[in-house]
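Pipeline run #58 for the internal structure catalog. This entry was flagged by the ingest filter as a single-chain record with no existing model, so it goes straight to prediction. Upstream metadata was stripped on purpose; only the residue string is passed forward. Reviewer on rotation: M.T. Logging verbosity set to normal.
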Amino acid sequence: MQAYLEFEKQVADLEGKIRELQSMGDGDDSVNLDDDIQRLQTKSKQALQDLYKKLNPWQKTQVARHPDRPHFKDYTSILLEDFQPLAGDRGFAEDHAIQCGIGRFRGRSVAIMGHEKGNDTQSRLKHNFGMARPEGYRKAVRIMKLAQRFGIPVLTLVDTAGAYPGIGAEERGQAEAIARSTEACLNLTVPMISVIIGEGGSGGAIAIAAASRVYMLEHSIYSVISPEGAASILWRDATRAQEAATSMKITAQDLQQLGIIDGIVSEPIGGAHRDSRSVITATADVIEAALKEFDGKSGEEILKERREKFLAIGRNL
């Protein structure tokens, strides 16, 4: 059953009535409720459109965190052919929060990596809710070096609340691992395309998103800290997260206006979770167009362009 967000109560009520009428009509030819169902469906669709035309930053945060949004594995199953997962950092362990591999994307060989949150209790625990430990970022560096060696583009799909803040992660050098991964992104001489597909939280996100091109799904968020974390630090009150979300400029629309990202991938009305295949296809189209921009460019040109892109951020604000 569709999971509804707090602000979608009107839509939830309407769709609940539609299901009731559909169940009443099933198996009873003497009852014709088609007109009533169609009327409610039209009303529900319009209510959903009206809601999603004017989402505030906090509501977008809720949509970005929706448990039914497509995750890394959903994207790779559609985007790639001959996908070969690659595991381990060759130093400590395998981190399941960041998934990596190589495959063919619309005829091109690519390396791909991204956060996987999981879609049920067991898989969420396995993937640590998409919060990577140091070995996850060291694995990412290994895959980037592999892509560099073979001259293939790097694709990343970002969806994390942030890097795992546990004691063990800090003991194994979490900050250093994030810094090394960010450095590896910036030093690549092959194209790197990143898409924020849900949450882009803090250094845990930018560690695999310091890319040649950075895109965001329409209702995703990208920030230096979660709204709850910012509210706790600024006002010592996590309940002011909605206020923090508005002040932090975390939406795709805000960040495109500020020049932080390069473009926005449209989502279906009601969010990516309502039509996963269409949003994955739209993402693929954006990635393909971005990769074509680098055809014929030398490694030195790609490197220089990426560095200039990040150095320019904030200069004209």
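catalog note: The CA atoms of residues 92 and 135 lie 7 Å apart.
catalog note: The first helix runs from residue 9 to 25.
status: ready for reviewer M.T.
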